[in-house]
Amino acid sequence: MDVNANVLKRFVIYMAILTFVMFTVWALIRSFMNRPPGDYETEVCDMRLKDKLYDKAIESANIALEKSPDHRGAIMCKALVFISQNMYMEANRELDYLIDFLEENVEDDDPTGRGTLAAAYANRGIIKDRKENYEGALEDYLKAVQIDLEAVGGPGLGTVILNYKFKSSSVKERAIYIHEQLQLPENERVLKIKELDEGQVMHKPGKL
What range defines the domain where residue 207 resides? Predict the structure, then answer.
């Protein structure tokens, strides 16, 4: 009788575990099936970007855009891929389109959309910064900060020389630095340091 009780007890425990596992698997399946079109491919793009598999990243972003035209995460991912390859013309085209699209469609109660818009301005500012269009970069950096300071608030623009010391720079700090330098006579400005500029970090919202 004790043996049967132990067997029954183990059976109940195993069934409880199996039920929990099945419910978890089903929840994951439902979550995956209910995702907006293009989200999965955008995440793949992001992963391939991190692995520097740029062609595969673009391929995934394009699939996302086939499923969901104007997918803001996919457009952003393409822009980041192009920036990573120093393909600034292509990156700028994507960011211009994304900025125009978001400014027309993002609502005030869409924090992810506003974060994406701020990141797009910040990334376009990076391109202008690298191309020595400092006035244009400053304009985009300020716009990014005005839209969503938190989204672009962390260290993200490499380092700059300030009082002959290296200093980690957020978008806001870089904007202040450029503004200060532009007030100086042109021959006294320190705006471009190749080794540091190449370390600029691109921005993206918390969730593409």
Answer: 106-208
* H/E element, 5: helix 2-33
For 70-103, give the DSSP string.
T-HHHHHHHHHHHHHTT-HHHHHHHHHHHHHHHH
Cβ–Cβ < 8 Å for 52, 83: no
Measured between alpha carbons, how far is residue 122 from residues 66, 134, 154 in Å?
A: 26, 13, 12
Q: Please say if the pLDDT value at position 30 is more than 70.
A: no
How many domains are there within the chain? Answer: 2
Q: What's the CA gap between 114 and 27, in Å, rounded?
A: 29
Sequence-separated (6 or more) residues with CB below 8 Å from residue 141: 121, 122, 125, 171, 172, 174, 175, 178
pLDDT greater at residue 21 or residue 195: 21
pLDDT at residue 197, as a whole number: 57
- pTM score, whole prediction: 0.74
Residue 149 tokens, joined:
């300071």
Q: Is residue 194 part of a domain?
A: yes
Verify that 82 and 126 share a domain, yes or no. Answer: no
Please tell me the least confidently modeled range out of 4-13, 54-63, 152-161: 152-161
pLDDT, residue 152, reads 77
pLDDT value, residue 73? 92
